[in-house]
Amino acid sequence: MINHESNVIEYTYTDQHAVPDDVSEPLKPDYAINQLLAQFTGGIDPVAYSLAFTDWFIHLLLSLGKQQALADLTLTNASTLNKNLEDAADDNRLSGPEWQAWPYAVYRQNYLAMRQWWQLATRDVQGVEKHHTDMVNFSVRQWLEALSPANYLTTNPNVIHKTLESAGANLVKGVDNLIEDIQQQYFREAEPKREETYRVGENIAVTPGQVVFKNNLLELIQYSPATEEVCAEPVLVVPAWIMKYYILDLSEHNSLVRYLVQQGHTVFMISWKNPQHEDHNVSLIDYLKQGLGEAIEAVQQRVPGEQINGVGYCLGGTLLTMAAAWLAREKRNPFCALTLLAAQTDFSDAGDLRLFIDESQLSMLEAVMAKNGFLPKESMAGTFTLLRANYLLWSRWVKEYLLGERQHPNDLLTWNKDATRMPARMHAEYLRQCYLHNSLASGQFMVDNRPIALADIQVPLFVVGTAKDHVAPWQSVYKINLLIDKDITFLLTNGGHNAGIISEPGHAHRVYQMATRKEDGAYLPPQAWLDEVPLQEGSWWPAWQQWLASQSSRKVSARTVEAVKPLPAAPGDYVLAP
Fold it and tell me: Which segments constitute the Poly-beta-hydroxybutyrate polymerase N-terminal domain (predicted)?
């Protein structure tokens, strides 16, 4: 319920650590304090990071061996300053020949030496809790990336050259770009000066189809066939509600939906509603039952008598495995196979996102969400920016504000800016259950007061990881091999969480590795798998499509899709809502 006097939304969690049903008066000042702190810290809890740095610093003071190693490194770097330090593999902005000339070579060497020193100082300090070590290392890494000489006018040779060449016009344009972006960010009424090239329903998300089912959580789209015959078993795609679905239906040349339709599949797609404040008490179980559960029933009604090829992307893949385990427990088996795209089921090694998740930080996050009933889309976007600050923040800073060059618009960038919100209750439950307690992997995730077990899933799986994934590290995705004892085809492709999945045939520089572990096959650790499985050139989509086709029992006549009034045609209404 909403308390209009205090502007605090009171919501209920099922987790034992969460806020009680009625937020008492003593709790409201705590919420207010955390909300105030969050405005200055970007939602990052200063208490959690203070504890982490205190743990690290005290143990560093007690580690004489580490101190000696740091002193030795300082002397070594001082005596070899003019030698080349090749430690810029993750920042290719420092790798060009212009960085070898004086004085830029000195800036570069000093920076790399400083980064090397801090990496040694923040890692492997005896006695420091691992979570604290990772938090300190991550924070120092953000600070070091901000100090890179590539980020500043006077220390970046490319910026200086452009400034001299254009008589400073690039700086004037950069200031203009900065003012425009500030107006867009903080004064929403300001209109952008540049024309938007991509628009949903006009030149992206245009695969023909029809919304055939709708409830207060989702719209279900069925796409029109492109072949005379199709595989008997339909494909149901479950995207994450942390993103809008049309990343899988971008332009005509890189639409995964269009590709599947053209290969002879009946494709259904879930388009999740972007939650508003009235959706604050929507739970993770609601997404499971009223969301995916009702979508499955709608597909079965439209394609009676056939099982479903389930496809889940990111959080949608996690939800898909929950649904498969839950329905298997209930002796309902709607799936003939499952595909998981960059989706985690075991969150014990979930990468840098875990650095933002502990009891202290979740308490602040719950306070932030209590104000509006959802996690603002800016908070989610900010978190992902921090995970790839070098690429998403500092490279953009240099390109747009120092060089004065706007990024060329593309469909993926347009989608990336179209952020979504998270319902307060669901988001807190998801973070606690999956990231904090790892309940799904440990068999403690409760549905109807009974745990579900991923081991109950009895269908073959196709699992895709991406090599540069900062959201769902491929080693974490790979852990499904320890949880489900069925045939699992694991595929690792190059690229990141989004670009690695959108890897259409003909896309340059694409490679992948793929191998199948049979139900009775031995487990192969991730690094051994990486070393043993051969590399293949090209897009992974055709290999996956062949696997999908192999899970089909037969071909049938294509299923036409007629208008379902009053429901809209694809892409539907939910995807257009801000």
Answer: 30-63, 91-260
Residue 446 token pair: 């409760």
Cis peptide before 26 (omega within 30 of 0): no
231, 314, 336, 434: the catalytic one is 314
Q: What is the token pair recorded at 443?
A: 């068999």
C-alpha distances in Å from residue 487, one per residue of 167, 423, 431, 458 = 63, 35, 29, 9
What are the pLDDT tens digits along the chain (578 aa)?
334 333 334 444 444 344 444 433 444 666 666 666 666 666 677 888 899 999 999 999 999 999 999 999 988 877 765 455 555 546 678 888 899 899 999 999 999 999 999 999 999 999 999 999 999 999 999 999 999 999 999 999 999 999 999 999 999 999 999 998 888 776 654 455 555 688 999 999 999 999 999 999 999 999 999 999 999 999 999 999 998 999 999 999 999 999 999 999 999 999 999 999 899 999 999 999 999 999 999 999 999 999 999 999 999 999 999 999 999 999 999 999 999 999 999 999 888 888 888 888 888 888 888 888 888 877 777 777 777 778 778 998 999 999 999 888 889 989 988 889 999 999 999 999 999 999 999 999 999 999 999 999 999 999 999 999 989 999 999 999 999 999 999 999 999 999 999 999 999 999 999 999 999 899 999 999 999 999 999 999 999 999 999 999 999 999 999 999 999 999 999 999 98
In terms of DSSP bridges, do strands 555-557 and 535-537 run parallel, antiparallel, or are they unpaired? unpaired
- Give the span between the Cα atoms of 343 and 314, in whole angstroms: 4
- Closest-CA residue to 380 (of 418, 349, 348, 413): 418
Strand runs (DSSP E) across 150-228, as ranges? 209-214, 218-223
d(CA 140, CA 146): 10
Q: 3-state secondary structure string, 21-38? A: CCCCCCHHHHHHHHHHHH
Q: Cα–Cα distance between 244 and 112 in angstroms, integer?
A: 39
Instruction: Give the Cα separation of 459 and 14 in Å (integer).
Output: 30
Structure-token pair, residue 309: 């090829």
Maximum pairwise Cα distance, the chain: 77
Task: Enter the tokens of residue 77.
Answer: 């770097």
Is 314 a residue of the active site? yes
Long-range contacts formed by 166-174: CB under 8 A, 24+ apart:
166/404, 169/404, 170/402, 170/403, 170/404, 170/405, 171/402, 171/404, 172/404, 173/404, 173/405, 174/400, 174/401, 174/402, 174/403, 174/404
Structure token pair of residue 415: 């989608």
- Give the closest residue to 340 by CA, choosing from 237, 452, 443, 259: 237
Q: Where are the beta strands (DSSP E) in 448-531?
A: 450-451, 461-466, 488-493, 511-517
Report the relative pairing of strands 235-238 and 308-313 from DSSP bridges: parallel
Q: What is the rounded distance in angstroms from the CA atom of residue 415 to the CA atom of residue 200?
A: 9
Take residue 562 and report the two structure tokens written for it: 């007629």
Question: In 303-402, which ranges are continuous DSSP H helix?
Answer: 315-329, 359-372, 377-387, 389, 395-396
H/E segment holding residue 270: strand 267-272
Cβ-proximal residues to 465 (8 Å cutoff; 6+ apart), any chain: 342, 472, 473, 474, 475, 477, 478, 490, 491, 492, 493
